[in-house]
Specification:
Elements (H helix, E strand, L loop, with lengths): L4 H12 L4 E5 L4 E6 L2 E6 L6 H16 L11 H5 L8 H4 L5 H9 L5 H10 L3 H7 L3 H4 L3 H12 L6 H11 L7 H10 L5 H9 L14 H13 L3 H10 L1 H15 L4 H15 L23 H13 L3 H9 L4 H11 L7 H4 L6 H23 L4
Antiparallel strand pairs: 1-2, 2-3
Helix pairs in contact: 1-2, 5-7, 7-9, 9-10, 10-12, 12-15, 12-16, 13-14, 14-15, 15-21, 16-19, 17-19, 19-21
Length: about 375
């Protein structure tokens, strides 16, 4: 059955008025359009089941905008969420009233601040806000603070721990929030430590609480400085770990590791650990994805520790120079190397066999976390 004559006419008139974005309220059966900041609405008059009628509305919109009467190809879900849509078609996708088309826009590499404004009008939802804040053009535009404010207000209602991690990490970018709000988010991590994983990802060297450098840090400063001047990556990393910022990172990591919320939070924490201790990691070159990167891989943490020991025994020139300069820190260097290899894959052997959360999950994960605590503790205590 076709759309009613009245609805067909009104929808075509709306499109003819250069509408920039379309939003469909399926509950109230209303179609909204935005053109030059003016909002219009059409009360639908269905002549069949509501869900079938909405499908026909979307087919009309798609036929007029994209020339595709079959509607937006929602089966391309994974492709569009990977940001593979062509930039020249993004504006048209916002005129379809299709949630998956909006997702394609907010994930696109060509997303602009203006497109973000229109997409936010079309679908003001937390996941869309997070996706858009992964774009530098949005973070540095007018919409950045708008989206950040929304995510902060929405945090008390967010139930997914990993979504909280992502939200916190994203709002900490640039100058989206004030220092007061930043400190409030950090304080909330006392009762809900998943908040602090976002800090470990976004600003690992600039955590809010003060800290002191390791007791023996000054003793090794000159030796490390000489190597750092020569571009030694390992020396640079070790100096950072011994510093007050590094010790603050380790203390925060230990606090979270004692009581992680769920499996996704654990995976996010493990990735944050590996990224921090890896001298070759560059956050600007690594994109975050809703699907954890190493979900299908497996790692044995004891194997990583053993490999770090072998790496120091068969050191390359750069690592050998560090070992020669500070021989008393050999165990610390081994711990640094083992932690640098950590990813969420060290949890796979456990999580592949259980979907437990809370205290049961922590008990099953203890063989992994106990070894992690041991490596972190090595870096917190000065070598005798």
């Amino acid at each position: 059955m076709a759309l009613s004559t009245e609805d067909n006419l009104r929808l075509n008139v709306m499109l003819a008025n250069n509408v920039e974005a379309v939003r469909i309220d399926e509950g109230r059966m209303v179609v909204y359009g935005l053109a030059n900041d003016n909002e219009m609405h059409i009360q639908l008059n269905p002549n069949c089941r509501d869900e079938l009628y909405i499908k026909q509305v979307r087919e009309l919109l798609s036929g007029n905008v994209l020339g595709s009467p079959g509607g937006y190809p929602v089966f391309l879900k994974r492709w569009t969420r990977m940001g593979q849509m062509k930039d020249d078609s993004l504006a048209d996708l916002l005129k379809l009233g299709e949630p998956e088309a909006i997702m394609a826009v907010v994930c696109a590499q060509g997303l602009t601040d203006e497109l973000a404004r229109l997409a936010w009008w079309a679908a003001p939802e937390a996941e869309y806000a997070r996706r858009m804040l992964e774009s530098d053009s949005v973070v540095n535009g007018k919409m950045g603070s708008v989206l950040a404010d929304f995510l902060i207000e929405f945090l008390p209602f967010e139930e997914d721990p990993y979504a909280i991690v992502r939200s916190v990490r994203l709002v900490l970018q640039g100058e989206l929030i004030s220092d007061e709000v930043r400190n409030t988010l950090w304080a909330r991590g006392i009762k809900k430590n998943v908040f602090r994983i976002g800090f470990l990802e976004a600003c690992p060297d600039d955590l809010p609480e003060p800290a002191v450098m390791r007791m023996d840090a000054e003793q090794h400063q000159q030796a490390l400085a000489r190597l750092i001047d020569k571009g030694n990556r390992y020396a640079t990393q070790l100096e950072k770990i011994l510093s007050a910022a590094g010790q603050r990172f380790i203390a925060t990591t230990e606090m979270i590791l004692k009581k992680p919320a769920n499996q996704e939070a654990v995976c996010a924490l493990f990735n944050a650990i590996g990224n921090y201790f890896n001298p070759d990691y560059d956050a600007a070159e690594n994109d975050y994805d809703e699907n954890l990167s190493n979900a299908m891989a497996e790692q044995d943490i004891q194997v990583l520790i053993d490999q770090a020991q072998q790496q120091t025994e068969n050191a390359d020139k750069e690592l050998s120079s560090l070992l020669d300069a500070v021989p008393m820190l050999r165990e610390d260097i081994q711990a640094m190397l083992s932690l640098a290899a950590i990813t969420d894959a060290i949890a796979t052997p456990v999580f592949a066999r259980t979907d437990a959360v809370g205290s049961v999950m922590r008990k099953k994960l203890a063989p992994v976390t106990n070894l992690l605590f041991s490596q972190l503790q090595t870096l917190r205590q000065p070598t005798e």
